[in-house]
Structures are given as C-alpha cells and as structure tokens.
C-alpha cells in the first residue's frame, strides 16, 4: 500500500461492490492485507477470476459474489451468503459504477435509466438489504464511492455526473438517519485515478491512442501534477472505516490531488504563465 499505511481489520467482514479491478480491487486488497474477510463483486467471470488470482497471490482468500448489484434478487442473495459465512457485516463499500459519455441531446432514456440503476439505486438497495447485518457488525460503516464529477462536472458526462452528485446527497441522508444505530456513512470522491477504465478513456481522447501522453496533458491541470493510484483511494477508505475516524460521518472526502481546489480561471492563468515563460 502507498505510504506504508497499516490498519488492523482482523476478522472484519467487508463487501465491496465492483471490486474486480481498479479502485475496488485496491480496496479489497487493503482490507485483505489488514486481516479482513473480503467479499468481492463483479459481473463478468474473466476479470473476477483474474481478481481472485491477484488477491490469492498476495495471501488473501476472497469470496466472490458474482452478479449485477442493481438486481434486488442479487442483493438479497449476496446478503444471505454474507450472513451464512460471517453472520454480520462490518463495512459496506458501494463502489460499482458505469459511465457513458454522450452529449445531453444524444442521451437515450434507456442509457439514462441504466446508469441511475447501477450508480444510485444499487447504493441505496445494498445499504437497505445489508442493514440487518451491519447492525450486528463491529465496524458499522458504509462507504459510498462518488467522484469529483459529482462536484464539478465536465461536458458530456450526462447521467454519470448526475448520479455522482446524487450519491453525495444520499450519503448525507443515510448518515443522518442511521447515526442513531451507530452506523457511520461517508463518501469518497476520487479525481483522476490510474485505473484500467481511465487508461481506455484516455487512449480514446489522445489522437495517437496513447494513454500515457493523455495522462501527461491532463496532469497539467492537477496541482500535484499526476494521476492518483488506486491504493491511495483505498488508504482513505480504510482510514474512514477504522476506529481512528470514529467521529466522521455524513462527509465526503475528496481524493483528487487538488484538482477541485483550482478554478478554471486558475488553470487559464497557469497556461498563460507557461506560454509567457516558454
């Protein structure tokens, strides 16, 4: 893990939706390294098998719950498996999301609804179905993975940005209503993170199809000058899930290298200064 960060989640039971690659897989690895019993989730068998091998190679024995988390039947089936194997749930990480980039006028209703089902409805549904297990857990934590695009959206991000903004509100509502049960609900909003999905997206943006070149251009707008690593997001999730963060709930923590701290005007001034000094 980045920064030699260590945590202790020995025997805690953790479910992470959308955890067969990228940020979700890094979160699963982080909990697994810290002694947690990790339930991972995905919709496709091949990446799921690769994730299992990756974790096993690192001494982690995950339990795979394969299926679409936007299905209520799946959510209930996952709950039953977790209950049978653990009897409780300590941490729920809502991470599964899909993104379709189109101009608003080209967004068809079916695509719009699909993103809302996966990116928003599933967050509510998993929390609601898993609530009895969370009440039995030691951790009593729900982490909702949002995005900086829910705070400052970009053109053509459509339903993705809408759902990510809604997740911020969902986090606050859940935190207020579940505080009386001792359950903490926190959001995490990553910025530009080096994931397989972002490498594909960046390759499509670059005229030569070179994601590394695209990263270098995009990184000029990031104060820290680089893309984040999945494990850097995972470290934040682990901290927020730990007893060290016992007084944090209802907040969304931004993990973006300072991206949302700089205004568009600031970026333009930076560009002007760069051109002047060139």
How does this structure look, described?
With 278 residues, this protein is an alpha/beta fold. The model is unreliable at 269-278 (pLDDT under 50). Helix 3 runs parallel beside helix 4 (109-136) and helix 6 packs across helix 7. The protein is globular. Strand 1 (13-16), helix 1 (22-33) and strand 2 (37-42) form a beta-alpha-beta unit. The chain has a 7-stranded parallel β-sheet, sandwiched between helices. The protein is 47% helix and 12% strand. The chain has 9 helices and 7 strands. The longest helix is centred in the middle third of the chain and has 28 residues, at 109-136.
The overall average pLDDT, rounded, is 92
Quick one: overall form? globular
Number of helices: 9
Which residues form runs of ≥5 with pLDDT under 50? 269-278
Write the layout of secondary structure elements.
Elements: E1 13-16, H1 22-33, E2 37-42, H2 45-56, E3 63-66, H3 72-85, E4 91-94, H4 109-136, E5 141-145, H5 158-178, E6 184-190, H6 196-205, H7 211-219, H8 230-241, E7 252-255, H9 264-277
Parallel strand pairs: 1-2, 1-4, 2-3, 4-5, 5-6, 6-7
Helix pairs in contact: 1-8, 3-4, 4-5, 6-7
């Amino acid at each position: 893990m980045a920064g030699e960060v260590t945590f202790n989640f020995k025997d805690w039971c953790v479910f992470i939706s959308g955890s067969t690659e990228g940020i979700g897989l890094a979160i699963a690895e982080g909990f697994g390294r810290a002694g947690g019993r990790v339930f991972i989730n995905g919709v496709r068998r091949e990446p799921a098998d690769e994730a299992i091998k990756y974790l096993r190679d690192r001494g982690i024995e995950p339990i795979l719950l394969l299926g679409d988390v936007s299905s209520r039947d799946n959510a209930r089936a996952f709950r039953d498996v977790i209950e049978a194997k653990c009897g409780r749930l300590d941490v729920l990480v809502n991470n599964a999301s899909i993104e379709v980039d189109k101009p608003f006028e080209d967004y068809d209703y079916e695509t719009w609804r699909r993103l809302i089902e996966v990116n928003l409805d599933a967050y509510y549904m998993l929390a609601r179905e898993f609530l009895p297990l969370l009440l039995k857990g030691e951790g009593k934590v729900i982490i909702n993975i949002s995005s900086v695009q829910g705070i400052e959206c970009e053109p053509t991000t459509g339903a993705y940005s809408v759902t990510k903004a809604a997740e911020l509100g969902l986090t606050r509502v859940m935190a207020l209503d579940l505080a009386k049960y001792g359950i903490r609900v926190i959001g995490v909003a990553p910025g530009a993170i080096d994931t397989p999905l972002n490498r594909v997206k960046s390759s499509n943006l670059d005229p030569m199809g070179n994601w590394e070149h695209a990263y270098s251009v995009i990184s000029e707008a990031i104060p820290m000058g680089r893309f984040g690593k999945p494990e850097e997001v995972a470290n934040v999730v682990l901290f927020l899930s730990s007893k060290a963060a016992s007084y944090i709930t209802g907040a969304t923590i931004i993990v973006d290298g300072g991206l949302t701290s700089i205004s568009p005007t600031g970026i333009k001034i930076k560009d002007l200064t760069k051109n002047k000094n060139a």
